[in-house]
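Backbones bend. Our protein:
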Amino acid sequence: MSEQVRPARTSAGNHFSCSMSAVLIARVHAFGGSEAVTEVLRLAGSTRSPEYLLDITNWIAHDEAVALWQAGARITHHPQFARAVGLDAAERLGSSQIASMLRSLGSPEAVYGAIATGAAKFSTVTDLEVCQARPGYAEIVATASERFPRSVEHCAWTCGLLTCPPALFGLSAAIVEHEECQGMGAERCVYHVHWKVVDDGESAAASREITALRHQLDAMKDSFRNVFETATDLIAVDDLDEILARITARAAVEVRAVRYLLAVRVKEEGELHCQHKGFEDENVHAYVEELLGRKPGEHPESWLVVPIGSKRREYGRLLAMREPGQSFYPQERAVFEVYGRYAASALDGASALMQAQERGDQANALLELARELAAAGTSNEIARRLAGAVPLVVDCDRVGVYLWDAGRGELVRRAVTTRESPEAVEVADEGWAPTPGGPLDALIQNPNPELLFVDENEGNPRLRAILSGRGFLATVLVPLVTTEAFLGFLSASVFERPGRLRLTPELRDRLSGVAAQAITALQNGRLLDEMTHQAQHDQLTGLANRSQFTDKLRSAVERAREELHAVTLLYIDLDGFKPVNDEFGHDVGDQLLVAVAKRLAACTRTDDMVARLGGDEFAVLIDSRTSAGDAEEVSDRLAAALTRPFMIDGHQLQLGASIGRAVFPIDADDPDGLLRCADAAMFAVKRSVYARTLGPVRGR
């Protein structure tokens, strides 16, 4: 009798994502090392290499997957091997980009409700139907697609995966009951999923929220590492086709699909550059024609198509393709568009370099600019890198980078560099609000990439007055705009020889290349800004959240220990908030919390930090160098502010506040101890209030 177990009969087919086989290989390797992996592949009759099976962007056929599950069970002697692989995948999912997208749906029941879309990232051979999805319970029916008989191993693997969604939100893994199994002869597979819906108080809920947030931050770090490695590829690789191949491969890591295709032309009538994954070579041409030939919005729902284009021109399109009837999450489009912009940036650079080579232009300077921007992250970092690198591309005496801050409604100066101090980039918070009908207002209302030249004779009179007042003989303003938004300005100015900035065709091309690089970098920087802000701020009030507050508290205590001064922490719990929620509802309660947050922020100084720790609990970290009397004054202001009535949705609401105070190093010698002392002091205040009004109050 042959040792081989149901060998794979199909060598081609995009039926199971290698995210499954990668977990399977890892489990086998942990059991018996490389020799066990080799034996599993032999028993399964697989011709794949371990490297192929570990690449989560690859796919394997249905029969290959079943044979690998069976071989893995034989080698590891595990009676529920396939289910264990599913459980392993669920555990690994916690800090992945897919988990971040699923977590954004808001609750385990919402994830189960959208399971048909999520399952398409792992397998294409099953039709899923969600019969019920409510807090604590979901019923899911799976039916094998035509031509792919349901195997017991597939069912067991699915059971493992279905335990995952509650864990994404810091809850215990779900229990999956699988009493009807198509692999055992039933007409369909029915999964009953149960999980515990916990209501164990604000503290435990906050702890689960922090755990989920940490997983999300890990996923964001991995995602942005992938994004920034892509940025490095743009300047580390000389061959355009290799750059496009890497962009396609990295996009496949972030957005799971069966096939990928990137089709572009550097010149409108030039050579077509194609990169693809999952297609047979002989079929690619037909898909390219369909991809480029249809108008936006005409592609099937199972196609995720983003344009590859910039202010220079449209180059082509990037496609992720799933099986008919499957779709994508909205968040996946946002991520995919990032890689579309990177491809456009690479093509802008290739186009600029082609022109540079034709005219002997400053190709090395543009390359250096690309290196600088690729190394940046946030919008402010990009502004500093841009200000420092532009003088290498443009002959000027001063460069300024001004970014539009929608929250402030101002154009804010973020970086300045001069010829005398090319390394000393200044970051200033000076801002200008648009004057109605003025040039800045017009640009915000109607983004226009046209370069603006201003000297003593030419340009808008208002701009001439502003710039000449600063001593500039000539300035070129480079709007940084997309088709939909105004991002900011880049200014290049001279104090002498104004002819250097005359807008010749060569200078226009050079500045357009700079703008293209800057716009792509800023769009990605804004994405990082937004995700970082969301990870560090309370979504309701906009205050710092517990995670950011804890980090700031640790830093303040470490600095105070070195510099020998105090840190004051105020812990605030609202009195009378619960009756408002009970009587008027959570919407009014949320509005009240927002109003409280505004008052707290108004009563503190710039250097103080106000945070919402959860529920109706807040904290204030007072500047460590302030005196004890100043801290007392801040505490009194906060208490007085919260006792004034609030007008919310036509209701006059009255609150109070119990405020506990703790001082480092008097009350505690470490951040956690300081927070506990402030919490205990707050509760002592609350006890005394209740004792005077309602009698004794129990400890919590």
About this structure: The chain has 23 helices and 22 strands. The chain has four domains: 16-194, 237-355, 376-530, 546-693.
